[in-house]
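User: Second chain of the day. Same drill as before.
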Amino acid sequence: MNGKTVRLTVAQALVRFLTRQMTMIDGEKLPIVAGCWAIFGHGNVAGLGEALYQAREDFATLRAHNEQGMALAATAYAKAMFRRRFMACTTSIGPGALNMVTAAAVAHVDRLPLLLLPGDVFANRLPDPVLQQIEDFSDGTVSANDCFRPVSRYFDRIHRPEQLIPALQRAMSVLTDPAECGPVTLAMCQDVQTEAWDWPDSLFAEKVWAARRIRPDVDELAAAVATIRAAKRPMIIAGGGVLYSGASAELTAFAETHAIPVAVSQAGKSSIDERRPLALGAIGVTGTSAANALAADADLLIAVGTRLQDFTTGSWALFKSGDLKILALNVAPYDTAKHEAEPLISDAKVGLTELSEALRGWKADPAVAERAAKEKAAWLEAAGKALAATNAELPSDAQVIGAVVRALGVDNTIVVNAAGGLPGELHKLWLATQPGGYHMEYGFSCMGYEIAGGLGVKMARPESEVVVMVGDGSYMMLNSEIATSVSLGLKLVVVVLDNHGYGCINRLQMETGGANFNNLWQDCAMVAQPDIDFAKHAESMGAIAVKVSSIGELEPALETARANAKTTVVVIETHPLIVTEAGGHWWDVAVPEVSARREVEEAREKYETARRHQRLFN
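Assistant: Same format as last time:
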């Protein structure tokens, strides 16, 4: 330290610090914090608002229409940037802050960097209870922002100016750590934001944050090599960690050098070009028939950068081999300790490289690749039928996906989705060819993520066509960032699939023996079924919008959307019950043991039969 200081408010110091944090991407030095989303209120407008104004030439401040939406956009930005850059979000206290909790949970589950700066109550407590303050009758230290604690990797509340220094250092450590990465919440007491302090110059020295690559332990690597060499039917499951590590080339090289087929989780899809012979596509509940067939017989799962969530494992009923072993290659020890796995704690890029070098000369039994090729050919034929154009009055989700692929292509298009029936169809049917070309938020499966998420993706990848596929249910939950995309000149193509309700959950309700109830509009208690004109609604927010009545009309509408200069929304009605029959797997959704409905009792019998295939470790 040089002993020099600069007098700034806490908010000014925070913003200046953020502008000095850098990263290197492809040889170019860039600010690691790409800007701040802000919706101002009495808890942050005077402090952080003034500080952001002073820094407006060096640090972008963006205004959204919904606090959850802006935080989801920031989360999607970090995901699309493969965690190499991230964004901050600031709100007032109370409802504005709490609106970000859902987005914090998304970032937490998906292991994504997100800096949350909600305003908080007065540290001096003189005006208590201030407007929008939550009062805990037994704990005077609690505020609404304590709700962020379980969905933050690091949480702090700034009561005094000097507390900001260690808080910022810890925040950056978490936001850039490959194993600990996740949301950070710094709750900013509103009076403290405005207090001045003499800050050491060293706090504002430029710092470049390099991506840390954890290398495998020598003994763990040797054990992993022995395990792979002993396997007769190995298979790779690639997760989001492959993309975050930038290890797509290493994954492909490892698979092809050692003749091991690859399946992908929702987060891992696009980590390998699915045109490659050994790339079998999606696995699990929403998996291809090819991937699931080989998974059922596999005696070794090489799980790379995945936490093996229940949709990936078919609720642990997918794998039938009695001698199954799991090798977990992951930066997070927490994930390698699951499922009785053999750990290989390592970054995916260096881990796969060192593993391949240690396996030099070894290949899996040729019968594995031969079966993979046969199963993949059968799957591609089935997928082609599902995607084909139709003259049906109400097309399926798969047929809409087919139209999107034919009209927009997949090589320079990023598809964005999160919830409902579309994740299952897209996981199976979208042919991912480039890293990040498939952007699915399925760790938390957050309805409402889609449009806000698409905005964040477009900010990260402006050169790509970003197509948001969203059901009417998710659209109704959160659509206001259409207006934000228009205001920022960030063009999206939004395809709204209107099946008049929550079609996915309605199908699940039927599969578990339940009566059609409270999901599709026609099965709800209401005086009149609403006739929602999504095209006019989107148009009212500044978008170009059109409703089409068939697949034949959809394709030219999408081609027009591609040529348009601003956000375009295309609406099409779809069938609520049709799904792709091929592929897929059972999913553990508990069915009531007792019911007056015969259908529920029959579903319970099937449920108990399916559960017998579940493995006991978890």
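The first helix runs from residue 10 to 19.

User: Great, on to the next one.
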